[in-house]
Design a protein that fits this description.
The structure holds two protein chains of two kinds. Helix content of chain A is 37%, strand content 28%. By secondary structure, chain A is α/β, with parallel strands linked by helices. In chain A, strands 1-4-5-6-7-10-11-12 form an eight-stranded parallel β-barrel, surrounded by seven helices. In chain A, helix 1 packs parallel to helix 2. In chain A, 52% of the residues are buried. By secondary structure, chain B is an alpha/beta fold. Chain B has six helices and 13 strands. Chain B has an eight-stranded mixed sheet. A three-stranded mixed sheet of chain B has the order 5-6-10, with no helix packed on it. Chain B has a two-stranded antiparallel ribbon with strand order 7-9. In chain B, strand 12 and strand 13 form a beta hairpin. Chain B is globular. The chains are: A alpha/beta, B alpha/beta. At the A-B interface, helix 2 of A face helix 1, strand 7, strand 9 and helix 6 of B.
């Protein structure tokens, strides 16, 4: 049986891990290479790097970060943020990433999903979706949540699945930053209606039940969080012991090699 | 320690494999040249992507026969992911393309659950196993192998039913999972393979 995955997310700006609310009041959270190694030791099942620099120099720095992480951390690495072209995907994979995550670029040009999955394999292509509730449904937002589209979240999921996407990284804009727990309803709505694995994101607080809830009730395949791990308000190994006690299939770290 | 030859068929990204070999202080040669394969002391065949494309790429570079010959003549061989699947003759992924046909059997698609299987699954080792332990390892696959001879299976995993996660037979070892992405556990498995076949 597949284990439910715990995925720390590292927002990287100019080669440093940062954390802020809505990109404001950024706090430095340390060297991403060291942080990645620490998370891997603590039992992270995968790592997501989100490049929040907008400049070309920043992108180059990001590739160096990924290259250095991949030399010493041997778990899957996903990189997102500013990836627009097949060339961008190729470069980040060559740097050592296992998957590239596309958001706005995929909405603007869905064809890229098809091309990228053909060129690199579906398993490399993660589609990140920022969704926000309106009345009885959820809508897709682009440009880092700044711009609403008319596309319903589940319709978009079905489209990207047909085009060859390998995984969905689903962020609830309503829950994001609240630390009040994942958006169980949105996660369940998507996860039960797609054949793709769904990573739930947004809203995790330093409360272990937030995770058991999104796995049990939300049917998530993985859960992603950032600040609670960076600032040690929740330890990955403690969380995984809690999940095991609650009968959620979990990869515990081997005690010794 | 001798140099490990890594067969590069062109479409796969080999970086994670070479990264972990460097971490293990191994010398390696990434190649698609027939002569290099012929001279290989040990062979790793990582693979991602499509069964048909893989076999066609091998064929185009005229590497199919030499690869089969090397495997059959006892050269230590490690297949990873698609590298386990091409050891068989037939895959549902490319019904019109022949695999290497080292083992009788076939490659089929998962029929239940989310596809691809992406994530960590727990190995259930068999008695025919000398590298693995019953731990979680990282998988990304839509297809899995069904060998006719079950005695070569070294581990199963459960994904809505048991499937073959690893094989072992004489000089041939093959993993459906990615040891190079399975953290310390995967690192340990590779080290054991190297200790047994590369620096013995």
């Amino acid at each position: 049986m597949l284990a439910k995955r715990i995925i720390p997310c590292l927002d990287v700006k100019d080669g440093q891990t940062v954390k802020g609310v809505n990109f404001l009041n950024l706090r430095y959270a340390g060297d991403p290479v060291k942080l990645a190694a620490r998370y891997s030791e603590e039992g992270a099942d995968e790592l997501v790097f989100l490049d929040i620099t907008a400049t070309n120099e920043g992108r180059e720095t990001m590739r160096n970060v990924v290259e250095n992480v991949a030399k010493q951390v041997f778990i899957p690495l996903t990189v997102g943020g500013g990836i627009r072209t097949l060339e961008d995907i190729r470069n980040i994979l060559l740097a050592g990433a296992d998957k590239a995550s596309l958001n706005t670029a995929a909405v603007k040009n869905p064809e890229i999903i098809f091309q990228a999955s053909k060129a690199f394999g579906s398993q490399c292509i993660v589609i990140a979706i920022d969704a926000k509730r309106e009345a009885d449904d959820w809508y897709v937002y682009i440009n880092a949540g700044q711009k609403k589209t008319d596309i319903k979240a589940l319709d978009w999921v079905k489209t990207v699945e047909k085009l060859g996407a390998g995984e969905i990284l689903l962020t609830s804009m309503d829950a994001d930053g609240t630390q009040n727990g994942f958006d169980v309803e949105l996660t369940r709505h998507v996860s039960l209606n797609t054949n793709l694995p769904v990573i739930a994101s947004g809203g995790a607080g330093p409360v272990m039940e937030h995770f058991s809830e999104v796995f049990d009730k939300g049917a998530a395949d993985a859960a992603l969080a950032a600040s609670i791990f960076h600032f040690d308000t929740l330890k990955i190994n403690d969380l995984k012991e809690f999940m095991t006690k609650n009968k959620i299939p979990t990869r515990l770290m081997p005690s010794c090699i | 320690m001798s140099v490990i030859t890594i067969l590069d068929y062109g479409a796969g990204n080999l970086k994670s494999v070479t990264n972990i070999l460097e971490f293990l202080n191994c010398e390696y040669l990434v190649t698609n040249k027939k002569e290099d394969i012929k001279n290989a002391k040990s062979l790793i065949m990582p693979g991602q992507g499509h069964f048909g494309q893989f076999m066609n790429a091998l064929q185009e570079k005229d590497l199919t026969e030499i690869t089969v010959e090397k495997i059959k003549s006892g050269t230590p061989f490690l297949g990873i992911c698609l590298g386990i699947q091409v050891l068989f003759e037939y895959s549902e992924e490319a019904a019109d393309v022949k695999g290497l046909g080292i083992f009788p059997g076939k490659v089929v698609k998962f029929t239940h659950g989310k596809i691809p299987q992406i994530g960590w699954n727990k190995l259930k080792t068999t008695q025919n196993n000398s590298f693995l332990s019953d731990d979680y390892v990282y998988f990304v696959n839509s297809y899995h192998v069904i060998p006719d001879d079950k005695r070569i299976v070294s581990a199963y995993c459960d994904y809505n039913g048991d499937f073959v996660a690893a094989l072992e037979h004489e000089n041939i070892s093959a993993f459906q999972f990615h040891p190079e992405k399975s953290g310390e556990i995967g690192y340990g498995f590779l080290k054991k393979w190297i200790d047994k076949f590369v620096c013995f």
